[in-house]
Amino acid sequence: MPGGATIQISNFNLTYGWKAGVTGSGKISIDDLGTIHISDLNSGVAIVTIRSSDDKLLKIVNIRILEKINAATSNSSNSVNTSRASGEGIATVTVNGTDVKVVAESGFSGVTKVDVVVSDNGQQKTISMPVTVLPQAPANPVADQKKLSEIVFTWDKSPNAISYLVKVRDETVCETTTNFCLANVIVGPTTPIMGIVKGNDGTELKFIPVYQINKPVPAITVNFATNSYALNAKQKLELNTIALIISKEGFTRLVVYGYTDSRGGVDNQKLSENRAKSTASYLSKLLPNVTFKVAGFGASKPIASNATTSGLAENRRAELSLW
């Protein structure tokens, strides 16, 4: 089993009153039902010690893998029979005294079973230990914001996964068998994002992509009347809407740039600065904890032709970007 995967060994036979202790290189816990959870194993090995309910070590007589035994040898010092694992997903299962050592196959995910026969005061009892090998979480998961409503998810492929899905606000936005997917959904620095790596037999494991935004992403453009930097009722409504998104998704930095068309008769540089300032000033009252960068560029960066009425209208603007 690759490092970082998880083995869960569960007791489905509580009538025998057994409990288990485990050792290994990973994180280990046992819940109230006797289920052993072993995760982050560097070696991919779980060792289980079987005890009775009164803490007496039980002698392990033999082990069976999915009811199949390919080979058996005698351990004279402990009178213990061991078998080579033949079940799907289990590389080896060996026993040493009162320890059962379970090693999962590299690349396997899913559910299999180890049956352990123990001797307790001369009576043999079978303990079934279902073994669930979860898919390994992918390395380097990233959520890279490209636009306000476009985000690209990437990761290194897991060695024992069959597919991946990504959820935003607990809703699935993409599912893939590759290491890449794109979602057209509004996100931000604090948007709840979760990935799920899926394995065989319905096994799955959650992972959290690391959000990143490498440059400001465009959010909204406000267009102005000729020689004006005043916001009308419609523009304020649009800014109210974007302010709710900024607050909800956790953006903390806004860039507001102002522009003019090419016509003269006014100080276009000053007019462009006032357009940026009036937009930022209105938003700052709605977003007191956000940092603003404000600048004007006059008529130097048209986005449409200044030879048409519609082009002039498009160039009289303030652009708001987020990050």
TrEMBL record:
Residues 211-323 form the OmpA-like domain. It holds the Pfam family OmpA. This is Unannotated protein.
